[in-house]
Amino acid sequence: MAAFPNNTLRSFKPLSPTFNSSTVRNSVLARNSVSQVPSSTGAVSAKEKRSFPGKPEADVVVIGSGIGGLCCAGLLARYQQDVLVLESHDLPGGAAHSFDIKGFKFDSGPSLFSGFQSKGPQANPLSQVLDALGETIPCASYDSWMVYLPEGEFLSRIGPTEFYKDLEKYASANAVREWKKLLDAILPLSAAAMALPPLSIRGDLGVLSTAAARYAPSLLKSFVQMGPQGALGATKLLRPFSEIIDSLELKDPFIRNWVDLLAFLLAGVKSNGILSAEMIYMFAEWYKPGCCLEYPLHGSGAIVDGLVRGLKKFGGRISLGSHVEKIVVENGRATGVKLRSGQFIRAKKAVVSNASMWDTLNLLPKEVVPKSYLDRTKTTPQCESFMHLHLGFDAEDVRKDLGIHHIVVNDWDRGVDADQNVVLISVPSVLSPDLAPPGKHVLHAYLPGTEPFDLWKGFDRKSSAYKELKAERSEVMWRAVERAVGPGFSREKCEVKLVGSPLTHQRFLRRNRGTYGPAIQAGYRSSS
């Protein structure tokens, strides 16, 4: 499980009226609704970045090497399909790639994970894909992160009992009672949530066919184990988690705020926007005996490296620096793609897009897209964009007990999804020292999908006004870093200082308006 952004591979079918049923099967476009699980360490040769591997055709052409694209491509290759992944960037990983500057290896995506070491049908979906590809990701285990809230700052530990101590100290006795009431109500539902892995969770009627076809035995077993009351409660899995909160009459402000924060870290939306199944799955991972968090050794880029190795192991190919200009559609089906260079790459069976729904729409010929789909895509609400702060600095001057993760909430009343309010900080060199030169630390702070793109629209990236806006809008991250790292930290002494804006997201990641992804409320239009 990767906390914010949550990666979900979904499929959608922008079909012209002339497509028949067989064409539907051969022209599914899969997309990754999120962007933020990590990517390559950069262990790709310069020659490989520039060369085109093999013949310009494949059974399936995948546009983009984000986590969703690589998972899709790897599994297709695993099942004997000839697959070619085309990536515009010179590194794989899409919106989750990592990069190296002056010996500091930076994650551009999230670094809060759990479930990588689990196996079987109830394991982390990404772990299932890696397992199918014969790849493992060595991880360092830990059980806590620092939180800085209006009520105070404390080390929050996962597990069934530790959080009660924090509630007693920083909230109230009523908060303790309500938290116990919540766990008592939802943990019995975890068997059903775990029996229905996130890969199959959809907020539309399509979930019935998905679940019934593959997961009926495990679901039935779970319902029997839960008994009548638990089985009845399981019907809430595909409803917003806020409905469970409301049905339990939980009113303590700290509990409601904390649940919103957890939902936001998991999926980029508050509890009224996330499916109950996703939250219950997370609760089962984080609040059960013996649970732990994990960080991939050698950086989160090891995940993408593992996916690329798995893809190649089964004969799949990836071409970096291959910018797709358009999807070619002939006689009602996608037959390939045209690169910016003018080269045509033939797809014998399907074209799969790992780009956002809006960017994929721009790749398709306008005349083949049904108006209903065009209107639905254009009216789908978007999450906002990101601000990033990447720093490399000397470890000697900062606190010795520095942990890997820090979460800063400035004002509960504004909401966790308000701009300039929540800052997430990761210092992965704490657990994987090889990410920075000896005696140094690497740090990534970001505003998670809350930075309004409209503030940046139209700015010239070379202008002084743009630089001034970057300085202004990054100040909240600098202050959060200073709070987390300690009084010995100095901005001036940082050896690497990089500020990324929504325009950076839009430019490097080819994301429409630099967006995080669709802002779809749970159970509403999530099948697009």
TrEMBL record:
Alphabetical list of InterPro entries matching this protein: Amino_oxidase (IPR002937), CrtISO-like (IPR045892), FAD/NAD-bd_sf (IPR036188)
Biological process annotations from GO: carotenoid metabolic process
Gene Ontology terms, MF aspect: oxidoreductase activity
Amine oxidase domain residues: 67-463
Pfam families: Amino_oxidase
Protein name: Amine oxidase domain-containing protein
The organism of origin for this protein: Prunus persica
